[in-house]
Structures are given as C-alpha cells and as structure tokens.
Write a structure and sequence with these properties.
By secondary structure, the protein is α+β, with helices and mostly antiparallel strands. The chain is about 15% helix and about 30% strand. β3 and β4 form a beta hairpin.
Length: about 120
C-alpha cells in the first residue's frame, strides 16, 4: 500500500482508500464499495485511471476530487468533491450523497416479503 504513512480525511488517502486499493488488487472478489465511502476514488497523484473496485469496468479520478466510474456492478457514478451521484440500471438504483444507494429492486423484494403466502 503506497500511502501507509499518509492519512487525510478528504479526499484521501484514508481508510476507504485503503479498502478500495486492496479490492482493486484482488480481482476475484467483485465487491463494490458504498457510494458514500469518501476516499474510495482517491488514486494518489501518479495515476488517474484504474479498474473499478468491482473489476467490472473502469474509473477515472482527479485526486479523488472529480471522477467518473462506469462499470457493470457500480453503474455510472460521478464523483464531485467526494460526493457520489449515479445510476445503476442493472439493480434499478440511484446514488445520492448522504443517502448512498437507493434501490427499487430491494424495495420490491422487501415489500414481497411482508405479504402472507395466502394473499
């Protein structure tokens, strides 16, 4: 990990930067990070392009301050000043700062669970 002696709450490197770095180096996991994980888009000063954390697409970031992710698992994310805005058509969700990811698929699944099997 290249930032073991550095820590900055925003834009990074921070604990979310570390987690994203590890996930980018273990492609078999195919894990995404929450949309409200500030620091996940920080790559440092040397690189501006990287695979998405899930390894299902790619990400461009300018020091974690401005960036764009396009990936199958993450969908389309725009990072502006550490806040993530986005849409993911694959799981019918939107991403908003302060709320994270709001998914219609999860809402419909939970409403179906509240119904009795006889109805």
């Amino acid at each position: 990990y290249p930032y073991f002696n550095n820590y900055s709450t925003w834009p990074g490197p921070n604990s979310n930067t570390f987690t994203a770095y590890v996930l980018r180096h273990i492609p078999a996991l195919h894990v995404t990070m929450p949309a409200n994980a500030i620091g996940k888009d920080y790559f440092g000063g040397a690189s501006f392009f990287a695979p998405a954390v899930s390894h299902t697409g790619y990400q461009v970031s300018l020091w974690g301050v401005l960036g764009l992710t396009l990936a199958k698992q993450e969908g389309l994310e725009i990072n502006f000043l550490g806040a993530t805005y986005g849409i993911n058509p694959f799981n019918l969700s939107i991403k908003l700062p302060g709320f994270g990811e709001l998914s219609l698929r999860h809402l419909s699944a939970s409403s179906n669970q509240n119904q009795s099997p006889l109805s």
